[in-house]
């Protein structure tokens, strides 16, 4: 189906390789909603060579969104075209014709974000002595009742496996010289096979030359995941992604607790400068805590690379600890 010619005039986002006709997309329901963006569950007919209907996720922006949000989604689209890795979310297509809103079509992750998956697992983990340090109340929503989804208690091997998968996805991105800038459990998806995929590339930027992206204006800033040099000088590199990965490890071990509990985001920079770091969570091995701490080295050059982290996590998995 060739989109109406009139809709293509001035449409610089149109890319025949990825364009998907709107009339082959059936939107089902909203599965995530932010201030400016929305994620919907949908069915797509005959998408990327798959015959028949496939369940997909559609990302779009709300009417009240400004140009920054639209630009972020478009930059996510352009970036996803060039990535292909089992631990990075897959682009399936996009609807860019001007007879409707911009839709980014990505693979559907049955278990949603890693953050919500970890928190749901708590219901089943609370009886395991000492496993959950923080038993905040959390309810399953209608999309994920325990009868429709098999959520199992998470053990330390699962935590290592998830960490290893995320590290592999990030190794791939770092090799492509891509800096994610918003690596956090909320931006990692868990598929039906319980595979973690790095997602939400709205803030990702290509980095050239000195591997640093200097953010011009203060936008949305995920302070508790940010490296000190990002907080002070807006410097983002794969080494600042490593810092965020350390926070993700902490989120994993604590089954989705918000980092730096009880600490106000505005006080964090000073504390970090004074050398403050989060303590070892109760159920965390010294080995894994050493890894997260190495990600939080003040000097970016003293932090490990994703490649070496992948190897360390792999060795820990082999040893079975
Ligand atoms: O944790 P969740 O249920 O899973 O809530 C968030 C919400 O949308 C906002 O990001 C969910 N979400 C985002 N992308 C996808 C996807 N590709 N497949 C399934 N759920 C998704 C996420």
Automatic annotation (TrEMBL):
Tell me which residues bind ATP: 59
Q: Where can this protein be found? A: Membrane
Ranges where the Protein kinase domain occurs: 25-317
Protein origin, superkingdom: Eukaryota
Function recorded in the entry = Receptor for basic fibroblast growth factor.
This protein is called receptor protein-tyrosine kinase
Query: What is the native source organism of this protein?
Result: Sipha flava (yellow sugarcane aphid)
The gene coding this protein: LOC112692537
């Amino acid at each position: 189906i060739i989109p109406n010619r009139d809709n293509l005039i001035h449409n610089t986002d149109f890319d025949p390789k990825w364009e998907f006709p709107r009339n082959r997309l059936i939107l089902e329901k909203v599965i995530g909603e932010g201030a400016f963006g929305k994620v919907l569950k949908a069915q797509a007919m005959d998408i990327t060579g798959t015959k028949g209907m496939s369940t997909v996720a559609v990302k779009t922006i709300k009417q009240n969104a400004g140009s920054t949000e639209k630009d972020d989604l478009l930059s996510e689209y352009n970036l996803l075209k060039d990535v292909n890795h089992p631990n990075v979310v897959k682009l399936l297509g996009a609807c860019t014709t001007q007879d409707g809103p911009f839709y980014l079509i990505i693979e559907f992750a049955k278990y949603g974000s890693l953050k919500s998956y970890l928190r749901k697992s708590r219901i089943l983990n609370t009886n395991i002595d000492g496993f959950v340090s923080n038993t905040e109340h959390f309810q399953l929503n209608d999309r994920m009742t325990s009868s429709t989804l098999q959520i199992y208690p998470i053990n330390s091997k699962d935590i290592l496996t998830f960490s290893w998968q995320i590290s592999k996805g990030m190794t791939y991105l770092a090799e492509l010289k891509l800096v994610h800038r918003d690596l956090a459990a909320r931006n990692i998806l868990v598929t039906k096979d319980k595979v973690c995929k790095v997602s939400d590339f709205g803030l990702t930027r290509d980095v050239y030359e000195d591997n640093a992206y200097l953010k011009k204006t203060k936008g949305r800033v995920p302070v508790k995941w940010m490296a000190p040099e990002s907080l002070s000088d807006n410097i983002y590199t794969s080494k600042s992604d490593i810092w965020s990965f350390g926070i993700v490890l902490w989120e994993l071990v604590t089954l989705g607790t918000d980092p730096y509990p009880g600490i106000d985001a505005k006080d964090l920079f000073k504390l970090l400068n004074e050398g403050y770091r989060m303590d070892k969570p109760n159920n965390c091995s010294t080995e894994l805590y050493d890894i997260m701490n190495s990600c939080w080295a003040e000097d970016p050059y003293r932090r490990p690379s994703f490649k070496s982290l992948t190897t360390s996590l792999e060795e820990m998995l082999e040893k079975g600890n």
